[in-house]
Amino acid sequence: MAVDPTCPVCRTADIVCGKWTLLLVRDLAEGNTRFGELERSLTGISPRTLSLRLRALEEEGIVERRTYPEVPPRVEYALTEKGRALLPIIEGMRAYGQRWLGLEDCASDPVAATAASVA
After folding, report:
1. 88/86 Cα distance (integer angstroms)
2. CATH number of the structural domain 8-108
3. Which of 12, 23, 85, 114 has its CA at a distance of 20 to 30 angstroms from the CA of residue 32?
4. Average pLDDT, consecutive stretches of 10 residues, N- to C-terminus, the chain (119 residues)
């Protein structure tokens, strides 16, 4: 739905502005995470929406899905290099919220330390 598919800002906004996307990336910054852990950390997201968002991020190359051959099967999600490159954007949003909106850090904000190591 980019206004201009050749504009890098439009294309990036197309990817990251989907509901829950940046929060998923924020939570995946902690490392490998299972579906149930993501569902618990994102209060209000439905399992269907979570599944669709993860699949879309996987198709964009932002999230990697790993299935382990165990019984029962274990599936974990992790950020790819492309996904980790979004962490400075999230860090910038956190800093903006603190400075201009008077908000404190979230209870679980793994991005601050991770974004510094990516930059």
Report:
1. 6
2. 1.10.10.10
3. 12
4. 82 90 95 96 96 96 96 95 96 94 74 49
